Amino acid sequence: MPELESSFSNVVVTEPQGVVLDNKTPALICKDVGKVYPNGTKALEETDLVLNKGDFLTIVGPSGCGKSTFLRLIAGLLTPTSGTIETPGLPETKGNMGFVFQDAHLLPWRTAQRNVELLLEVVGTPKAERAQIAVETLEKVGLKGFEKAYPRELSGGMRMRVSLARTLVLRPPFFLMDEPFAAVDEMTRHTLNEDFLRLQNSEGFSTIFVTHSVSEAVFLSNRVVVMTCRPGRFMKEVSIPFSRNRSNELRSTPEFAEICGAVSKYLWEGA
After folding, report:
1. pLDDT tens across 218-253, in order?
2. DSSP-assigned letters across all residues of 133-194
3. Within this chain, do residues 165 and 251 fall inside the same structural domain, yes or no?
4. 6 belongs to a structural domain
Protein backbone atom coordinates (compact mmCIF):
# COMPACT_ATOMS: atom_id res chain seq x y z
CA MET A 1 0.00 0.00 0.00
CA PRO A 2 1.43 3.40 -0.92
CA GLU A 3 2.56 5.67 1.89
CA LEU A 4 1.00 9.11 1.92
CA GLU A 5 2.54 12.41 2.91
CA SER A 6 2.04 13.26 6.58
CA SER A 7 2.96 16.26 8.70
CA PHE A 8 3.43 13.88 11.65
CA SER A 9 6.99 12.57 11.65
CA ASN A 10 6.27 9.23 13.38
CA VAL A 11 3.04 8.42 11.56
CA VAL A 12 2.69 6.09 8.57
CA VAL A 13 -0.55 6.73 6.66
CA THR A 14 -1.86 4.67 3.73
CA GLU A 15 -4.97 4.41 1.61
CA PRO A 16 -6.99 1.38 2.84
CA GLN A 17 -6.78 -1.23 0.09
CA GLY A 18 -7.71 -4.86 -0.46
CA VAL A 19 -4.12 -6.09 -0.42
CA VAL A 20 -2.82 -9.05 1.57
CA LEU A 21 0.50 -8.16 3.17
CA ASP A 22 3.52 -10.36 2.50
CA ASN A 23 3.76 -13.48 4.70
CA LYS A 24 0.33 -12.77 6.21
CA THR A 25 -2.76 -14.97 6.23
CA PRO A 26 -6.01 -13.09 5.53
CA ALA A 27 -8.82 -13.65 8.02
CA LEU A 28 -11.22 -11.33 6.20
CA ILE A 29 -11.42 -10.00 2.64
CA CYS A 30 -14.03 -7.36 1.76
CA LYS A 31 -14.37 -6.41 -1.91
CA ASP A 32 -16.54 -3.49 -3.08
CA VAL A 33 -18.83 -3.91 -0.07
CA GLY A 34 -21.75 -1.47 0.08
CA LYS A 35 -25.06 -1.27 1.90
CA VAL A 36 -28.28 0.54 1.00
CA TYR A 37 -31.20 0.10 3.41
CA PRO A 38 -34.76 -0.53 2.11
CA ASN A 39 -35.73 3.09 2.89
CA GLY A 40 -33.06 4.28 0.45
CA THR A 41 -30.44 5.27 3.02
CA LYS A 42 -26.98 4.57 1.65
CA ALA A 43 -25.06 3.57 4.77
CA LEU A 44 -21.84 2.28 3.26
CA GLU A 45 -20.11 2.98 -0.03
CA GLU A 46 -18.37 0.26 -1.97
CA THR A 47 -15.14 -0.36 -0.10
CA ASP A 48 -12.28 -2.85 0.18
CA LEU A 49 -10.57 -4.08 3.32
CA VAL A 50 -8.30 -6.96 4.27
CA LEU A 51 -7.82 -8.09 7.84
CA ASN A 52 -4.83 -10.35 8.38
CA LYS A 53 -4.82 -13.14 10.93
CA GLY A 54 -3.93 -11.75 14.37
CA ASP A 55 -4.59 -8.12 13.36
CA PHE A 56 -6.23 -5.70 15.76
CA LEU A 57 -7.93 -3.19 13.49
CA THR A 58 -10.00 -0.32 14.89
CA ILE A 59 -12.54 1.73 12.96
CA VAL A 60 -13.18 5.35 13.93
CA GLY A 61 -15.55 7.77 12.24
CA PRO A 62 -18.40 10.23 12.78
CA SER A 63 -21.66 9.03 14.34
CA GLY A 64 -23.91 7.42 11.75
CA CYS A 65 -21.13 6.81 9.22
CA GLY A 66 -21.73 3.06 8.94
CA LYS A 67 -19.27 1.59 11.45
CA SER A 68 -21.82 -0.66 13.13
CA THR A 69 -23.39 -1.50 9.77
CA PHE A 70 -20.00 -2.73 8.58
CA LEU A 71 -19.62 -5.01 11.62
CA ARG A 72 -23.10 -6.43 11.12
CA LEU A 73 -22.34 -7.14 7.47
CA ILE A 74 -19.23 -9.08 8.46
CA ALA A 75 -21.16 -11.00 11.13
CA GLY A 76 -23.87 -11.95 8.64
CA LEU A 77 -26.56 -10.04 10.54
CA LEU A 78 -27.07 -7.89 7.44
CA THR A 79 -26.67 -8.68 3.74
CA PRO A 80 -24.51 -6.37 1.60
CA THR A 81 -26.21 -4.61 -1.29
CA SER A 82 -23.03 -4.95 -3.32
CA GLY A 83 -19.67 -6.66 -3.07
CA THR A 84 -18.45 -9.77 -1.30
CA ILE A 85 -17.22 -10.66 2.18
CA GLU A 86 -14.93 -13.67 2.55
CA THR A 87 -13.46 -15.20 5.71
CA PRO A 88 -10.84 -17.60 4.33
CA GLY A 89 -9.10 -17.97 7.68
CA LEU A 90 -12.18 -19.05 9.61
CA PRO A 91 -13.61 -22.57 10.03
CA GLU A 92 -17.17 -23.08 8.85
CA THR A 93 -18.41 -23.92 12.35
CA LYS A 94 -20.57 -22.34 15.02
CA GLY A 95 -18.66 -19.96 17.23
CA ASN A 96 -16.16 -18.95 14.54
CA MET A 97 -16.93 -15.28 15.17
CA GLY A 98 -17.54 -13.53 18.49
CA PHE A 99 -19.62 -10.34 18.64
CA VAL A 100 -19.50 -8.08 21.72
CA PHE A 101 -21.94 -5.17 21.82
CA GLN A 102 -21.94 -1.89 23.76
CA ASP A 103 -24.57 -3.30 26.14
CA ALA A 104 -23.61 -6.46 28.03
CA HIS A 105 -27.06 -8.04 27.38
CA LEU A 106 -26.82 -10.35 30.41
CA LEU A 107 -29.77 -12.44 31.57
CA PRO A 108 -30.71 -10.91 34.94
CA TRP A 109 -31.97 -14.20 36.43
CA ARG A 110 -28.65 -15.97 35.78
CA THR A 111 -25.46 -15.65 37.79
CA ALA A 112 -22.24 -14.54 36.09
CA GLN A 113 -21.20 -18.16 35.68
CA ARG A 114 -24.57 -19.22 34.26
CA ASN A 115 -24.50 -16.28 31.81
CA VAL A 116 -21.07 -17.38 30.61
CA GLU A 117 -22.33 -20.96 30.20
CA LEU A 118 -25.15 -19.85 27.87
CA LEU A 119 -23.41 -20.37 24.51
CA LEU A 120 -21.91 -23.64 25.73
CA GLU A 121 -25.44 -24.85 26.45
CA VAL A 122 -26.51 -23.85 22.95
CA VAL A 123 -23.76 -25.97 21.35
CA GLY A 124 -24.48 -28.93 23.64
CA THR A 125 -21.46 -28.92 25.96
CA PRO A 126 -22.02 -31.29 28.94
CA LYS A 127 -23.02 -29.58 32.19
CA ALA A 128 -19.89 -30.35 34.20
CA GLU A 129 -17.59 -29.34 31.35
CA ARG A 130 -19.35 -26.06 30.68
CA ALA A 131 -19.26 -25.15 34.37
CA GLN A 132 -15.50 -25.72 34.45
CA ILE A 133 -14.93 -23.72 31.26
CA ALA A 134 -17.08 -20.85 32.56
CA VAL A 135 -15.20 -20.64 35.86
CA GLU A 136 -11.81 -20.70 34.09
CA THR A 137 -12.92 -18.03 31.60
CA LEU A 138 -14.26 -15.73 34.31
CA GLU A 139 -10.84 -15.95 35.95
CA LYS A 140 -9.23 -14.98 32.63
CA VAL A 141 -11.25 -11.77 32.53
CA GLY A 142 -10.51 -10.89 36.16
CA LEU A 143 -13.74 -12.07 37.81
CA LYS A 144 -12.53 -14.92 39.98
CA GLY A 145 -14.75 -15.01 43.06
CA PHE A 146 -17.77 -13.45 41.30
CA GLU A 147 -19.10 -16.62 39.70
CA LYS A 148 -22.32 -16.61 41.78
CA ALA A 149 -23.00 -12.86 41.51
CA TYR A 150 -26.05 -11.67 39.59
CA PRO A 151 -25.79 -8.84 37.02
CA ARG A 152 -27.51 -6.37 39.38
CA GLU A 153 -24.68 -6.98 41.87
CA LEU A 154 -21.94 -6.13 39.36
CA SER A 155 -20.56 -2.79 38.17
CA GLY A 156 -20.81 -1.77 34.53
CA GLY A 157 -17.21 -2.79 33.88
CA MET A 158 -17.75 -6.17 35.54
CA ARG A 159 -20.86 -6.81 33.46
CA MET A 160 -18.81 -6.14 30.31
CA ARG A 161 -16.23 -8.65 31.54
CA VAL A 162 -18.98 -11.25 31.90
CA SER A 163 -20.17 -10.45 28.36
CA LEU A 164 -16.63 -10.85 27.08
CA ALA A 165 -16.20 -14.15 28.95
CA ARG A 166 -19.47 -15.42 27.48
CA THR A 167 -18.03 -14.87 24.01
CA LEU A 168 -14.58 -16.22 24.85
CA VAL A 169 -15.83 -19.65 25.94
CA LEU A 170 -16.22 -20.82 22.33
CA ARG A 171 -12.66 -19.63 21.59
CA PRO A 172 -13.62 -17.74 18.40
CA PRO A 173 -10.67 -16.92 16.13
CA PHE A 174 -12.34 -13.63 15.14
CA PHE A 175 -13.83 -10.90 17.35
CA LEU A 176 -16.16 -8.05 16.38
CA MET A 177 -16.41 -5.35 19.06
CA ASP A 178 -19.00 -2.57 18.76
CA GLU A 179 -18.03 0.13 21.30
CA PRO A 180 -17.96 -2.40 24.15
CA PHE A 181 -16.36 -0.08 26.72
CA ALA A 182 -18.17 3.17 25.88
CA ALA A 183 -20.53 3.11 28.86
CA VAL A 184 -17.91 2.81 31.63
CA ASP A 185 -15.81 5.48 33.33
CA GLU A 186 -12.39 6.44 31.96
CA MET A 187 -10.28 4.57 34.52
CA THR A 188 -12.32 1.39 34.11
CA ARG A 189 -12.11 1.78 30.35
CA HIS A 190 -8.31 1.98 30.47
CA THR A 191 -8.16 -1.15 32.63
CA LEU A 192 -10.49 -3.02 30.28
CA ASN A 193 -8.34 -1.91 27.33
CA GLU A 194 -5.22 -3.36 28.96
CA ASP A 195 -6.97 -6.59 29.91
CA PHE A 196 -8.52 -7.12 26.49
CA LEU A 197 -5.19 -6.45 24.77
CA ARG A 198 -3.57 -9.05 27.04
CA LEU A 199 -6.27 -11.55 26.08
CA GLN A 200 -5.85 -10.81 22.39
CA ASN A 201 -2.11 -11.33 22.66
CA SER A 202 -2.46 -14.62 24.54
CA GLU A 203 -5.38 -16.06 22.55
CA GLY A 204 -4.22 -14.81 19.14
CA PHE A 205 -7.65 -13.95 17.74
CA SER A 206 -8.20 -11.33 15.03
CA THR A 207 -10.22 -8.27 16.01
CA ILE A 208 -12.22 -5.49 14.40
CA PHE A 209 -13.07 -2.89 17.04
CA VAL A 210 -15.37 0.13 16.69
CA THR A 211 -14.96 3.16 18.95
CA HIS A 212 -15.45 6.91 19.09
CA SER A 213 -12.33 7.26 21.26
CA VAL A 214 -9.18 8.05 19.29
CA SER A 215 -7.03 7.29 22.34
CA GLU A 216 -8.63 3.86 22.73
CA ALA A 217 -8.17 3.14 19.03
CA VAL A 218 -4.45 3.97 19.07
CA PHE A 219 -3.81 2.12 22.33
CA LEU A 220 -5.42 -1.14 21.24
CA SER A 221 -4.62 -1.46 17.56
CA ASN A 222 -1.89 -2.22 15.11
CA ARG A 223 -4.06 -0.57 12.42
CA VAL A 224 -6.60 2.26 12.65
CA VAL A 225 -8.89 3.06 9.73
CA VAL A 226 -10.81 6.33 9.49
CA MET A 227 -14.27 6.48 7.91
CA THR A 228 -15.96 9.44 6.25
CA CYS A 229 -19.46 10.60 7.13
CA ARG A 230 -22.37 8.70 5.57
CA PRO A 231 -22.26 7.06 3.17
CA GLY A 232 -19.21 5.67 4.94
CA ARG A 233 -16.02 4.68 3.23
CA PHE A 234 -12.50 4.07 4.52
CA MET A 235 -10.47 7.19 3.70
CA LYS A 236 -7.20 6.70 5.63
CA GLU A 237 -5.33 3.96 7.45
CA VAL A 238 -2.79 4.73 10.19
CA SER A 239 -0.24 2.09 11.18
CA ILE A 240 0.44 1.88 14.91
CA PRO A 241 4.16 1.18 15.54
CA PHE A 242 4.13 0.17 19.22
CA SER A 243 4.84 -3.37 20.42
CA ARG A 244 1.84 -5.46 21.39
CA ASN A 245 2.96 -5.54 25.04
CA ARG A 246 1.48 -2.18 26.02
CA SER A 247 0.63 -0.63 29.36
CA ASN A 248 -1.24 2.55 30.25
CA GLU A 249 2.08 4.43 30.60
CA LEU A 250 2.15 4.48 26.79
CA ARG A 251 -0.69 7.02 26.78
CA SER A 252 1.55 9.71 28.30
CA THR A 253 4.33 9.49 25.68
CA PRO A 254 4.90 12.10 22.94
CA GLU A 255 4.77 9.38 20.26
CA PHE A 256 1.32 8.28 21.42
CA ALA A 257 0.08 11.87 21.44
CA GLU A 258 1.42 12.44 17.93
CA ILE A 259 -0.36 9.42 16.47
CA CYS A 260 -3.60 10.36 18.25
CA GLY A 261 -3.24 13.82 16.70
CA ALA A 262 -2.86 12.35 13.24
CA VAL A 263 -5.93 10.11 13.60
CA SER A 264 -7.95 13.06 14.93
CA LYS A 265 -6.86 15.21 11.98
CA TYR A 266 -8.08 12.64 9.45
CA LEU A 267 -11.26 12.12 11.44
CA TRP A 268 -12.10 15.83 11.19
CA GLU A 269 -11.24 15.81 7.48
CA GLY A 270 -13.76 13.06 6.85
CA ALA A 271 -16.56 14.54 8.98
Report:
1. 999 999 999 998 888 899 999 999 998 899 999 999
2. HHHHHHHHTT-TT-TT--GGGS-HHHHHHHHHHHHHTT--SEEEEESTTTTS-HHHHHHHHH
3. no
4. no
Provide the domain count of the chain. Answer: 2
Report the distance separating Cα 16 and Cα 60, nearest Å. 13
Rounded distance between C-alpha atoms, residue 262 and residue 7, angstroms: 8
Range of the domain at 130: 107-171
pTM (2 decimals)? 0.86
CA pair distance 244, 202, nearest whole angstrom: 11
2 found inside a domain = no
Q: How far apart are CA 101 and CA 88, in angstroms?
A: 24
Question: Contact, 72 vs 78, CB < 8 A?
Answer: yes
- The pLDDT confidence band at residue 22, using thresholds 50, 70 and 90, is very low
